[in-house]
Amino acid sequence: MALGHILGKTSSKFLKTNLNIPLVLTLSIIPDIDILAEHVPALSPILPHRGPAHSFIVSLIIFIPFFAVYRKTAVPYFIALVQHALIGDYLTGGGLQLLWPISQQGFGTGASIMSAENVALEFSLFVVSIAILLITRDIVALFQAHRPNLILMIPIFTVLLPTFLSYPLPVPAWLIVPHLAYLVLFAASVIFELPRFFRSQRSQKSELVLSNHV
Prior knowledge:
The protein is mainly alpha-helical. It has helices at about 1-15, 20-25, 35, 55-70, 75-90, 115-135, 140, 155-165, 175-214.
């Protein structure tokens, strides 16, 4: 997630485009939605972890309409999405079906997520990501009236929260800190936004009722 944010932010600066922070953070982790599919018997055979959801080809096909409409504005989001498999998961494991559906061959270095090198790299990226959020004041956007903040419920319920619902924890001890920090940050953002969202919904319903009586 940290790397997706860093690359998304860097590319948006280079391309001189605005960046939706909640969206780029969500896209950077969205391939791991297949983790939930493993717990659904009907989905687990067709959506295995590090299978089609991690395919570069699938990601490219999905983004073609966005490239056509938004052009360079879509590039940082695409980078945030594909880095998850092409860099993150590739360096910390194997079995990535990067060329699905053309090929089901697995790619990856075979390195362990528990290795000291991976822990040091991921923790360093987390520190850089948080520093960028603070220096650019992008973190402020997570606590302002901004409906897209609700999209952060996706990483909360697909990756971050499930991490703490199993024992032993499936991540190295040092990486509990980034997981917990992102969980608290995203949960706070969603909690701040939900009341505004519901007030807005009630206001729209009231306006609709009044307009129907006019």
